[in-house]
Amino acid sequence: MTTPLLETRNLTITFGGVIAANDVSLKIEAGRNLAIIGPNGAGKTTFLNICTGWIKPRKGQVLFQGEDVTALPPRKIVQRGVARAFQIPQLFTEHTALENLLIAAAARDGMRNPLIDLHDTPARDEMLHLLEMVNCADVAHRLVVELSEGQRKLIDIAVALALKPRLLLMDEPTSGVASSEKDGIMEILITALAEAKVTSVFVEHDMGIVQKYADEVAVWNAGNVQLRGAPAEILEHPDVIRDVIGEVA
Amino acid sequence: MLQLKSLDASIGIIPILRGVDISLQAAETVALIGRNGAGKTTVLRTIMGFTKVTRGEILFEGAPVTALHPPKRPALGIGYAPEDRRLFSAFTVEENILLPAQAAGLDKGETRRRLERAYHILPELKAMTDRPGGAVSGGQGKMVALARALMLGTKLIMLDEPFQGLAPALAQRYAEALRTLRDTDRSVTLIITESNPALLRGFADRTLVIERGEVAAGTLDAERTPA
Amino acid sequence: KPDSLKVGMTTFLTGPASVFGVPARDAMDILVANLNDAGGIDGVPVEVSYIDEGAGAEALSSEFRRMVETGGADVMFAAISSGNCQTLAPLAEDLKVPNFLWDCGTQKIFEEHDYKYVFRTQANATPEMLAAVIYLLKVKPDFKTLAVVNQDYAWGRDSWDIFSTALKAMKPDVEVVGEFFPKFGAPDFSTEISRLQALRPDVVLSTSWGGDLDTFVQQASQRGLMNTSTFVLPLAESSLERLGSALPAGQIVGARGDHYFLHPERRDDADFKAFMTEYEEKTGSVSVYSVFHASQALAALKAGYEKAIADNGGTWPDKDQFVAAMEGLTFQGLGLPVTIRADHQGIEAQLMGTSVQTGDYPFATLENIMVFDGAELTAPVGAVSTEWVGALDASFMDGLSISTFDK
Amino acid sequence: MNVTIFLLALFDGVSYAALVFIVALGLTLIFGVMRILNVAHGSLYAIGAYATVSLTGFALSMGAAPILAFPLMLISAVLVGLLIGGPIEVLLLRRIYNKPEVLQLLVTFAVFMILEDVQRLVWGTQPYFQSAVLQSLGNITVLGVTYTVYQLILLPLVAVALLLGLRFFLRHTLNGKLILATTEDREAAQSIGIDADRVFLLTFIVGAILAGLGGALASPTTSILPGMGADMIVLSFAVVATAGLGQIEGAALTALMIGLGRSFAIYFWPEIAVLVPYLIMVLVLLVRPEGLFGSPAARKI
Amino acid sequence: MSSVSTAPKTDAPKHPKSMLWIVGVVLLAAVPFAVPSLQLLVTFALAKGLAVVGVTVLLRAGQVSFGHALFFGIAAYACAFLMAAIPGADLALLLLVGTLGALLAGLCVGLFVVRYRGIFFGMLNLAFSMIFWSILEKFYHITGGADGIRLPRPTVLGMALERGPFELILYYLAIVLMVVLGWVTIRWFASPVGQIFQTIKTNETRLEYLGVSPRRALLSGYLLSALLCGVGGVLMGVAQGAVTPEYVWWVRSAEMVFIAVLGGAGSVRGAFLGALIYEIVRTYASAYAGDIWQMLLGAFLLIIILFAPGGLIGIFGSLAGRAVKEDAK
Ligand SMILES: Nc1ncnc2c1ncn2[C@@H]1O[C@H](COP(=O)(O)OP(=O)(O)OP(=O)(O)O)[C@@H](O)[C@H]1O
Ligand SMILES: Nc1ncnc2c1ncn2[C@@H]1O[C@H](COP(=O)(O)OP(=O)(O)OP(=O)(O)O)[C@@H](O)[C@H]1O
Ligand SMILES: [Mg+2]
Ligand SMILES: [Mg+2]
Prior knowledge:
The complex is a heteropentamer of chains A (249), B (227), C (407), D (301) and E (329). Chain B has helices at 40-48, 93-104, 108-121, 138-152, 168-184; strands at 2-11, 14-24, 29-33, 52-60, 63-64, 78-81, 156-160, 189-193, 206-211, 214-215, 220-221. Chain B has one domain (2-219): Rossmann fold (3-Layer(aba) Sandwich). By secondary structure, chain B is an alpha/beta fold. Chain D has one domain: ABC transporter involved in vitamin B12 uptake, BtuC (Orthogonal Bundle). Chain D is built from 12 helices and 2 strands; from the N terminus they run H-H-H-H-H-E-E-H-H-H-H-H-H-H. Chain D has a two-stranded antiparallel sheet with strand order 1-2. The longest helix of chain D has 32 residues, at 3-34. The radius of gyration of chain D is 19 Å and the shape is globular. Chain E is mainly alpha-helical and 329 residues long. Chain E has a domain at 36-248. Helices cover 77% and strands 1% of the residues of chain E. Chain E has 15 helices and 2 strands. A two-stranded antiparallel ribbon of chain E has the order 1-2. The chains are: A alpha/beta (249), B alpha/beta (227), C alpha/beta (407), D mainly alpha (301), E mainly alpha (329). Chains in contact: A-B, A-D, A-E, B-D, C-D, C-E, D-E. The C-D interface holds C 13-16, 18-19, 21-22, 152, 179-183, 185, 187-188, 190-192, 194-195, 197-198, 210-212, 214-215, 218-219, 222-225, 242-243, 246, 285 and D 4-5, 8-9, 11-13, 15-16, 19, 117, 120, 125-127, 129, 131, 134-135, 139, 144-148, 151, 218, 221-223, 225-228, 231-232, 262-263, 266-267, 270-271, 273-274. The complex binds adenosine-5'-triphosphate (2 copies) and magnesium ion (MG) (2 copies). One magnesium ion is lined by residues 40-41, 83, 160 of chain B. Chain D: The chain crosses the membrane at residues 6-31, 43-62, 68-93, 105-129, 149-170, 199-218, 266-287. Chain D: GO terms for molecular function: transmembrane transporter activity. Chain D: Keywords: Amino-acid transport, Cell membrane, Membrane, Transmembrane, Transmembrane helix, Transport. Chain D: Its main location: membrane.
C-alpha cells in the first residue's frame, strides 16, 4: 500500500505529570479529511504541536511522506508541505490582513527581487480571493490588531491556505466564528481543499461540522486515540456521546 | 440595573459602537449575538471601561459609571471573562481564580465561599488547581477565566463566548451550571455573548443582536431565539 | 587696527574634566576683564567666547570652524583634551588660524607633525613626568619597588610610558611590582588598594586627576595605605583643596608646570597676589594649574601681538606677522616666564613639592619645593621624547639647575 | 594560587558586588514590572549621593554625630523616590505605556539628560567627598590588609537584607502578587479590579528609592561628581540583562559574579577588569539565552 | 505598523509630498553657497543620519541596539589604518574598505546576536561595542588610545585636494549617499524580504510556520544596518580627520537611537531629518546655552515624544500634508 501522508509512531509526552500524548500511533492517508474530536485537555493541540515540530516528543517519531521529521524545526516541516492554522490565531498584528497573506505567499514563492513592493507581488489577486473565501475581504486593509477574535481566526486559516500545503492542520477552525457563517465557510473551505488536493486534519468541537465535512473522525482521550472511524458510527458511539458530545446532541 | 444610553465608543481613534441602547433588569440573562466583528466584545469591554466612550453614558444600578476608573468597576460586583482567556501564567490556576477576591480585599471566609461556588459550577477545575495558568489547554483556559469571573460577579457577570472551544458535553454542562447559578442566586444579571445561540436556547431571557456596532433587531424572547 | 581682538577658547564646561575647564574659564574672564581695563592689547580690547569640549567631537569641530570662518575669531585657544588637540591642530592649520594648545599634555603633536599656526603655551608630558621622577629620586633616593595606578586612557598610559622609561634609565634597579589602569572615572579603587597593601610597594605613582584622584587618595588614606607607601601624584596640586585633610603629609605632589597658588618665586609679586585674591573671592576656591595655563595663553597672545606690532613698525600686524612673532617669544603668565621654541613647543618651568598639613589652610600645602628649569627637561627640538628619555642616565640629574625652597 | 590572595580577592569582590547589586536592584524591579529600562536610574543614583553628601555635610557642620548619616541616607533616598521618581511616573511615563517600548526608554533617557545638567547647576562641577560616616565605623585588618568596616561588612549586610526584603515583598505579600499580575497583562489585571496605575506608581517609586539608596550608600566611598550616574547605569543594564527579566535573585548572583570576576581580574589580569561585566553577560547568555534565572516566554498557540 | 504599509505608497514619485522631499534635498545641496558655516555641520549630520538609518532598520523589527556605534567605529578605524598603511589612498577605496569592514563585523556579531531579542539583543550589541572600545583603549600603541589616530585627507579619484574643495566633494558625496541608500532602504522595507524582516516584531511563531527562519530574517536586516552604520562611519572619520574610541562609545550608540526616535522611529527620512535638527540644536545649544545644552536637548526630545510621538517626520508630514492641501486648493 502507499505510504501515508503523515504517520506518527508511539508519540509520548508528559507535562509535569500531565500525560498530553500517550503512545499515539496514527496514519493519515492523503486525500481524506480527518476530524479530531475529544474533551478539553485531551491532547489534541499537543498532537498538532508534535507533528509540526513545535515540541519534541519524549518518545516516538513523526513521518511525513515516509520521511522522519521528528527532529526538524517547524519551518523545515512547513517547507515540506505542512501548514497549520492555530487554536489561538498567530498573525502579524501590525500588518494588514492582506499583507499577512502576501507575506505568506512571499515566503512560499521565495523572495527574489529585494526591491519590488510586497503589494506588487503577483500573488496579490490570489490572496484577495482567499480573503473573500473566508468572508474577510471587507477587512483586507485593516491592521490585524484592529480585528475581532473571529476575524483573526478566519484570517489565520487563510494564511495557512496561502502556503498551498499538501497537508493542512487546523485547530478548531470554526470556534469563535459566528454560527451563522460557520457552515458557509467550511463548505467553501472543504471544496477548495478538495480542488487543490489538500489533505486536512481539523480539531473540532462542533459535531454538526464534523458530521458534515469529515471523511473520518478520530476521538482523542487522555492523550491518545480512543476511537477512529466514519463520522456516522463514531458520533453514535456511547462513549463518545458521554465524553464529548453530551446527551442532547 | 445596567443601562447603556445611546452609547458611542471607539478604540484608539476608530469608532466602533454607534448609539448602543441596552437596559438590563436585575437577574435577567441576556444573550448578545452577532456576526464576527459586530461589536459584542467591544460592548463588554466598554462596560469594563477599556474603550473610549465618546457619547452617551453607562448607568450601573442607577449611578453613572461612564467615567469610573476601570479597576474600580469589578468591585461593584461585576465579573468579566474575556474571550481570549487572559490568564496570568505566573500564577497557578487557583491563584488565578483567587486573585480578584484578594485584589478586592474580601475576607477569608467570603473568599472561600465564592471559591466553592466557582468549583461547584466548574468541577473540572478541581483537578488542575495548582497547574501554572500558562500551561492549560485552550478550553481549560476558558473554564478558568469563567471561574475567575464568578469570584467578583455578585451582581453582573459578563461572559465573552464562554463556550467557545469547549467540547459540547462540557458546554452543555456549563449552560446547566449557569442556569442553576442564576436560579439559586436571583440577584445576578448575566450577559453572554455567543456566536452559537443554540446553546443558549431556553436559557437567555432575551437576545440582543449586534450589527456593525449597533443593536439591530430589538429583543426576542427565548422561544424565538434563532437557532 | 580692529576694534576688538576675538578669541575662541575650547574648554570643558561639562563632563569630568570640567574640574579644570570651569576654573580656567572663570580665570580667563577675570584676566581678560583686567587686561581690557588696562587698555587691552595696544588699545584693542580682547573678547573671549567659549566652546564646551564636553559637547563631543562633532559639535566641537563644527563650532571651532564656525567661530573661525564666520564668527571672526582671530586666535583660537584649543584644547584641554589631547584627543581634541589632535583633531583641532590640523583643522586650525588648514583654516590658517593661529591656535594655542593651552592645556593638553600630549608631546606627540609637535614631535610627529610640523605646524605653522599651532603653538603650545605650556610644557608637555615629558618635562612634567621627568620633574616627578627626578624629585622622587632626590627626596627618596633608595626606594626599591614601585606600583602605578593610572586612569585607563591615553594620558594615563603615555605618562606612565615616559615616567617608567625615565625611571629605568636613571635608576635601573627599581622593580615595578604592579601596574593598574582602572577605567577612567572608576568610582571605586578598593580592590586596587587591597592589592597594593598586599604588595607593599615603597612608592605608588598615580597621574590621575579630578574625581578619580580624589577617590583614590581618599580610599587609600582611609585604609592607611599612605602610611606604608609614598605616593607620587604629579597632578595632585589640582586636588589639594578638595582633598582637605585626607592627603597626609609626606606625599609627592606635582602641578603640570610651576603652578601653585603659593608659588615661592611668585607669591610676593603684586599682580600675582591681586589675582589670587580676586579669583578666590569670585570662585570661592584657590586656583589650580588650569588657571595658570589660561593665564599663559592670554599672556602669549598679548606678548605675541606686542612683539608683532613692534616688528611691524607700530602698526597692527596681520595674521602671518603675528604667527612669525610667536616663534621664540617669551611671555609671563601667573607662573615663571615661558618661551616658545622653534618647534612651537612651550618651555615651562616645573614645580614639585611634598604635602604637609600646616594648619594655615584646611588642606595640605607644599614644602620642600623644587622648581626645575623646563629647558633641561624637555626633549630637544626634533627628538622623540620616549627615545630621548630612554637614553638618559643617572648622571642626567646632577647637571640640572634646580632652585629649592623649604616652603 | 595562594590562599591569602584568594581570600582578599573574595572580600573585595563581595563588597563591590554588594554596591552593584543595591544599585541594580531598583532597575531590575522597574524593568521586571514595567518593562521600562529606566535610564534616569543613573541620575536618581547620583542625586541620592549628592543629597546625602549635602545633608550629612550640613548635619556635621551643625555638630551632629557622623553616625547620624545613616538615617540621612535613608531620608535622601526616600526624598529622591518621592520627589523625583513619583513625578517622572505620573507626569511622563504614565502617558506612554501604550507606546512602543523604545519611546519609554527614550523618555527616561531624556529625563536622564535633563537631570544630569540639573545636578551640575545645583552642585557644581567640583567633586564632593563625604566619608565621615565611613570613618566613624572604623577599619578592620584581615590578613594584614586593612578594610573599612563599612565596605567589608555593612554594605554586604544591607545588600542581603534588601534582597530578602524585596523577595518577600514580591512573593508573599498581596501587593507583590498584584504587581506580578499587572506585569503580565495590564488590561486583564484591571478587569479583575487591580489598579494598574497605582501598582506602577508604587513600583516606580520603590525602584527610584532603591536607586537613591544605592547612591546614598555609595557616597562615603567615592567622589560625587557630574557623570557618575552614567557609568553606573551601563553596569546596571548589564546586570539586568544577565539576571533575566526582573529576576532579583538573578541580579544578586550576577552582581556577585561581576564583583568577584572584577576583583580576581584586578589581582591576576588587571587589563581585562573593565571588560568583566560584558564578558560575563556574553558567557551567561550563551548558555542561558533568557538570562540566569529567566525562562523562555512560551507563547500559547 | 501602518507606516510600513503606507510608507512605500507615499514614495510614488510626483506625489506632492515626495516633491517636498526633492525640494528639501535641493535646499541641502545649496547649503555650501547659501550658509557655508553650516556645511561641515551638515556633513556630520548626514554621516550620523546614515548610521541612524541603520538603527532605524532594526527598530522596524522591534529591536533596539545599544551598540551600533561598533560598526560606525570599525569602519572609521579601518579607514584610519588604511591611510596609515597606504598614504594618499583614495576616498573611493576608503569607502569600500570601511563599508566592507563594517559588513564583516556585522556578519560576525550578527550571527551571534540574532538569537536574542529585546534587552538581550540590545545589551549584547552594547557588550560587543564595549569590548571593541576597550581593545582600542588597551592597544594604545597601535590605536593611540583615547586620543585616537589621525585620518589624513585621502585623494579623490587620484587628486590630492586642499581641505576646502575636498570637504565640498565630501559634502555632495554625503548627499548622494543619503539619497541612494535612503531610497534603497525604503524600497527594501516595502519589499517582501523587508516585510518578512519586520514581522519579527509581532509574531515569530507564525514566521516559523511560514517556513522562514526568524534568525535568518533578522540577520538580513542586521547586515543592512551594519552596512549603513559603516558608510556613516567612513564619512564621519574622513570629515573629522581623526578617529577616537569615542566613535564606538555607548553614548554614541545611545545617540543614534535618540536621533532615530527624535526623527520618527522607523522612518528613513526621519532619520536624516532628525540627525540634521539634532546636530543643529546640539551645536548651537552648546555654543550659546553654555553648559545646559544637555538639558535643552533632553527637553526637546521629551516634547517631541509626548506631543508628537510620530517624531519630527510626523510633524513635518502633517505640515507638508497641510501645505499640499493648500496647494491643491
Ligand atoms: N506547555 C504545557 N505545559 C504544561 N502542560 C501543558 C502544556 N501544554 C498542554 N498542557 C496540558 O496538556 C494537556 C493537553 O493539552 P492540549 O492543549 O493538547 O489539549 P486540547 O486537547 O487541545 O484541549 P482543548 O480542546 O481545550 O484545546 C492539557 O491538560 C494541558 O493542561
Ligand atoms: N483594537 C482595535 N482597534 C480598532 N478596531 C478594533 C479593535 N478591536 C476591534 N476592533 C473592531 O471593532 C469591531 C468589533 O470588534 P469586536 O471584537 O467587538 O467584535 P465581536 O463582535 O466580538 O466579534 P467576534 O465574534 O469575532 O469576537 C470589529 O470590526 C473590529 O474590527
Ligand atoms: Mg487545543
Ligand atoms: Mg468578540
